[in-house]
Amino acid sequence: MLILRLLATEQFGACVLLLTGLALPEWPVDFGQTDIVVWQIGRHRACAEALLTALLRLRVVQSLLLAPLLAATAIVCLAETDLTGLMAAHLARRR
Predict the structure, then answer these.
(1) DSSP-assigned states of every residue in 67-93
(2) In Å, what is the CA distance from 73 to each residue of 4, 16, 18, 76?
(3) Which of 57, 66, 87, 90 has the most CB atoms in a 10 Å sphere around its CB?
(4) Each residue of 73-86: pLDDT tens digit?
């Protein structure tokens, strides 16, 4: 909600576009991994530790690949917006 209230329409749209651009490539990669692992653990309880370890490793790799993209998106969004000035103006309006 804070982002909605602070950003102008164009700035908010740009940030949403960038975040969507990050989410779309990640979605097919992540699609159903947890469900598949839970299903496999239910079928092969002896392999539970190996399956969870593989899922954790996969998630760590995904996080390491996506974290710089998310940070770059945040930097672009913040560069487009003077958040300090926006927050000060918002607080002034509330008084």
Answers:
(1) HHHHHHHHHHHHHH--HHHHHHHHHHH
(2) 17, 10, 6, 5
(3) 66
(4) 767 766 666 655 66
pTM score, whole prediction: 0.50
Q: What is the dihedral of CA 92, 2, 22, 77, to 10 degrees?
A: 0
Give dist(CA 51, CA 61) in Å, integer: 16
Round to whole Å and give the CA distance between 39 and 50: 14
What token pair was written down for 39? 């299903």
3-class state of residue 18 by DSSP: helix
Residue 38 CA: distances (Å) to CA of 27, 49, 56: 19, 11, 13
Can you list the alpha helix ranges (DSSP code H) found in 1-95? 2-6, 9-30, 33-43, 48-80, 83-94
Would you say how long the chain is, in residues? 95
